[in-house]
Amino acid sequence: MAILEMKNICKSFAGVYANENINLTVEKGEIHALLGENGAGKTTLVNILFGIYTADSGQIFWKGKEVSFASPKDAIASGIGMVQQHFSLVRKMTVLDNIILSLKKNHFILDRASAEKRLVDLAEKYGLVVDPKARVCDLSVGEQQRVEILKALYRDVEVLILDEPTGVLTPQETAQFFDVLRSLKKEGYAIIIITHRMSEIMAISNRVTILRDGRQVAELTTALTNPGELSRYMIGRDLCVNYDISSPVAGENIILMEHISLLQKHRGHPLHDISLQVQKGEILGIAGVEGNGQKEFAEVITGIQKHSEGMISLEGIDIGKKSVKERYESGIAYISDDRHNDSLIVGMNITDNLMLRDYCHKPYSHLKIMSRKEMADNANRKMEKYQIRASGSTGANTPVALMSGGNQQKLIIARELSDNAKLIVACQPTRGLDIGATEFVREMLVEQRNAGKCVILISADLEELMELSDRIAVFFGGRIVGIMKRSEATVQQIGVLMGGITGEEGIL
Amino acid sequence: MLEQILSVSFLTALLSAAVRLAVPLMYGGLGETIAEKSGILNIGMEGVMLSGAFFSFVGAWYSGNLFIGLLFGILGGVAVSSLHALLTIRFAKDQSVSGLALNMLMLGVTSFLYKIMSSGKSYQQVKTFSSIKIPLLSQIPFIGEAFFNRDILTYLLYVLVVMVLIFYKKTNIGLSVTAVGENPRAAASAGVPVHKYQWISMIFNGALGGIGGSCLVLVQLGVFTENMISGRGYIALATVILGRYTPFGMFGAALLFGAANALQIRLQTTGVPISPYLLAILPYAITLVAMLGAIGKNSQPESLSKPYIKGAR
Amino acid sequence: MILQAKQKQTIIDAFLIFSITAIIGTVLILACGANPLEAYGLLFRGIFGSSSSFAEIFVKACPLILTGLGCAVAFRTGFFNIGAEGQFYIGAIASTVISLNVTGLPGWIRIFLSLAAGFVCGGLWALIAAVLKAKFNISEIIVTIMLNYIAINFLGYSVRSFLMDPSGNVPQSAKIEPGSQLMILIRSTRFHAGIIIAVICVLLVWFLMEKTSIGYELKAVGLNRHAAACNGISVIKNIILSAFLSGGLAALAGGIEVLAIQKKLLEGISSNCGYTAVLIALVAANSPIGVLAAAVLYAAMQVGANSMQRQMGIPSSIVNIIIGVVVVLILGKEIFGFLGTKRKLTVMEEEK
């Protein structure tokens, strides 16, 4: 009998379905993988299970009884635990304190001695080695994850949900982690693991449910499937490419990256040994599930983060030491995936936001004094050319906060695609935009490419990449695991690479 | 001259004065520690203590009873801290602005009410709490006189410091409150009622700050004068930092400030070449260095002065 | 349409705050056993009654304008400078030192040098907190408060030692020569040249913030530090610049107080303007012209309240109550929601 059954779960946000009639059954002693691209609805589904959201319709059966959880506390009390992608740990407190924090069965005076004993026993049983007295801030990310798992186990959960658990682990830690999962499984725990890594799904799961665009497209037994089939379900059939880009404008290499690595404290190497060349008049698409180093890649090129090893050059000049401003002036433009945090200043209006890069250059600024007239003219010109619409009648003085996502994106594009730009780094540029805005952005990028500029297009939307790119590189785990001409690429092949499988094993 | 300073009688008297001067600071510092551990910065401690001082005077004067005065002082402090809590917890406004506004407001309110209360009347003074010698302990050379020949509010302070320490180190709620100050989101997902605990911390912040202000009136001076807190509320903030956000550390830091203050007063009469004003700078400079030294191993609650808004990500 | 609704809301809020404050003021006056109409009449007459008292408004406003300006510049950039008090005194000390020691130059050059020295020293004093924040991420709130006390005590030391007037036995400096004092501009009042300097500073700061790329950068950093950095604006440079300007302006207030009013250096001459400045900047929403208006308004209230105190016995501390109430009401605007006007608590709860 299945310990957990979710039937016909539906959930929508602001009129958009995140989950549409999803069914999920999990047995005791099973590891059930949940596979899907970004935005497929996996996290929404488990958040409903964990009590963070309430389903619009559908039922959840826990041990045969229908339940509905109003909060994570309720879910945990019933026996459902979750380890989220972003940990909920108090860094300055010890491991033990984090685990016993606010437990129902705590007495007024804490009994740390017996709690520690219980914790150590639990940890040893499942191979989750961790020092109860260590402070969380002194632990590696892998060790912190162990604390999160122990937190759930300590609360006597029977189902453990893991959201992309191996993204933060080294290969060795991943192997240890799988041993832990296997011993939990032997003990009868039911485990739901959300992952996009095919090799892991093949290695550890009993069954896999695949979601796409909020719907459930398959539930398979792992032993009877393979990565090729999985990726086909995940992404959909091979798409017809109907965007006819003229053949690549042959050009010199404009940007060259050799052995670029990025080292971050407590996070290891988000980027490892990246070597790449991009030509003028080319769109290089970067495929990959979010979180595999693409954002760091974009930031290392634009200068927001400085790489730790390797060399980047633009038109033959080493730009490694150049600041963000200098790189912009050398011709690197940036369309970030996080408009509100990276690209726009929400408290300013359209005119001022358009100036964010060029405010100190002529003709907008002369001897530090700004020319409001030039700025206003520029704003009007750009608003006309890029059809940036502002709500209300205040035109260029509209605060950016009142604009729609699509118009905000047009503003950013209007600003970044100056004549000066040689390389455009676009990170998820059409995410969250309506069809009209999406088409507009794609047209702009193609226009730039045809004009001889270089475009690096980072996107989780494979259809977009297949339509627009001249070449496609696939990121996984901070490395480039494959790079090919678009004419040679298949969606299936890319999907498999996105899941981290290289070589022949993945191709059906 | 140096022998004069280093003589036992001088140092004993100095320590006694230091403790006396430090006690109001310690109440303020203890109250502020409690607030900051839950993530709320209360720069308005000055106003809390002033309110406590004034209302303790009012209570004692009109009732003739020092304990009623103390009660009024506590209520006066709680009122100010509650207003701060309303603005910073419920309305999630900037904690520094709120604190400064309350300082200004209480300065005005207490001065105003005092002027009305005392207009035309002759000099108003209340009896003060007398000293109680603790047998045996007060005979310990050097420290006995300083620490164990004091009034009940001082003894109450000792007890409270220990209780607060035990509370945070050993109790379940103490652990939860600590989590609130460090990572309220993590605490909330563990089921801790974040805002509720912050409110309770602020009530204690007000009560203790109120007692601190009351100390000045009911123990030391017997009178109320306008702006009598004279910056002690701000110094209380420093003692919390210097004390690394622990009660005992705060105690030691407050003693340091008290000692510097006592030394400053005494040195003026002995004609020692070291300027008491330069000496007075010392505790503040040490606080700054302590903040510097705390880089890397910062003991400040991570979520201090950041408003926690439910549900937002 | 949304903008119009917002503007309407602000006007309603302002009206409500004004009304509540007026009611509270009236109640307080009644509590003194005084007649409110008489009191308000005295308030007006106290302010507008004589040229000397009207001029006194600007005399009192001068330090508030400058320190308020300093706070506004700092807050705009996200640097929470509570140290205006200490910076004021540092400026006073530096200005005194230059003024007493640089002789043999024409008066106005001496004045200029003293004030400039004050400005620079105050700026550097604030810089300490800024560097600690920029490099080590240490909260500038506590640092600036500690620096206040260090500055005040240093002043106490200096007027009892190296700056002490040799001809007396009182903790104050030697007198500033009339030649290098800031002169009175309007006879039989205390209206002095420093006030003009303060107003010029308002205009300069306004120009800086609204018309120059420097001001643009400061504003960007204050609104969204990360986005500013992602677009190439140096956050550290701007925090340091705003701290320096902020400290310099507060120090200017101190220098002017010495050269125009006190004509010597002594303790306690700030009348707490450093802390009041924070509230003034808030009420003025960090706008330079707003600071000018708020400072003048506050000073006018003080002058009027002094008159009320002299003649009717209403304590002048009523002014502290009024500004405290105003700020509390500004912070607690949401309370008005309970009175019927629709209100949202935070931006985050709105649709993204």
What's the topology here?
The complex is a heterotrimer of chains A (508), B (313) and C (352).
Chain A: E1 2-13, E2 16-27, E3 31-35, H1 42-49, E4 57-62, E5 65-67, H2 72-78, E6 80-83, H3 95-100, H4 112-126, H5 141-154, E7 159-163, H6 171-186, E8 190-194, H7 198-204, E9 207-212, E10 215-221, H8 227-235, E11 253-264, E12 268-279, E13 282-287, H9 294-302, E14 309-314, E15 317-318, H10 324-330, E16 332-335, H11 339-343, H12 350-354, E17 365-366, E18 369-370, H13 372-385, H14 405-416, E19 423-427, H15 435-450, E20 454-458, H16 462-468, E21 471-476, E22 479-485, H17 491-498
Parallel strand pairs in A: 3-8, 3-9, 6-7, 7-8, 13-20, 13-21, 16-19, 19-20
Antiparallel strand pairs in A: 1-2, 1-4, 4-5, 9-10, 11-12, 11-14, 14-15, 17-18, 21-22
Chain B: H1 2-6, H2 8-37, H3 45-63, H4 66-90, H5 95-118, E1 132-133, H6 143-148, E2 149-150, H7 152-170, H8 172-182, H9 184-189, H10 194-221, H11 232-242, H12 247-270, H13 276-293
Antiparallel strand pairs in B: 1-2
Chain C: H1 2-31, H2 36-48, H3 51-76, H4 84-101, H5 107-136, H6 140-158, H7 193-211, H8 213-223, H9 225-230, H10 235-262, H11 273-283, H12 288-312, H13 318-331
Helix pairs in contact in C: 1-13, 2-12, 3-7, 3-10, 3-11, 3-12, 4-5, 4-6, 4-10, 4-11, 5-6, 5-10, 7-8, 7-10, 7-12, 8-10, 11-12
Question: Can you characterise this structure?
Answer:
- The complex is a heterotrimer of chains A (508), B (313) and C (352).
- With 508 residues, chain A is of the alpha/beta class.
- Chain A is built from 17 helices and 22 strands.
- Chain A folds into three domains: 234 residues, Rossmann fold (3-Layer(aba) Sandwich), CATH 3.40.50; 160 residues, Rossmann fold (3-Layer(aba) Sandwich), CATH 3.40.50; 71 residues, no CATH class.
- In chain A, the strands form five sheets. A six-stranded mixed sheet of chain A has the order 6-7-8-3-9-10, sandwiched between helices. A six-stranded mixed sheet of chain A has the order 16-19-20-13-21-22, sandwiched between helices. In chain A, strands 2-1-4-5 form a four-stranded antiparallel sheet, covered by helices on one side.
- In chain A, helix 8 crosses helix 17 and helix 14 runs parallel beside helix 15.
- The longest helix of chain A is centred in the middle third of the chain and has 16 residues.
- Chain A is globular and about 70 Å long.
- The model of chain A has no long low-confidence stretch (mean pLDDT 86).
- With 313 residues, chain B is an all-alpha fold.
- Chain B has one domain: ABC transporter involved in vitamin B12 uptake, BtuC.
- In chain B, 72% of the residues lie in helices and 1% in strands.
- Chain B has 13 helices and two strands.
- In chain B, helix 2 runs antiparallel to helix 10 and helix 4 packs antiparallel against helix 5.
- The mean pLDDT of chain B is 88.
- With 352 residues, chain C is mainly α.
- Chain C folds into two domains: 70 residues; 262 residues, ABC transporter involved in vitamin B12 uptake, BtuC.
- In chain C, 71% of the residues lie in helices and 0% in strands.
- Chain C has 13 helices and no strands.
- In chain C, helix 7 packs antiparallel against helix 10.
- Chain C is globular.
- Chains in contact: A-B, A-C, B-C.
- The interface between A and C is medium-sized, with 39 and 24 residues.
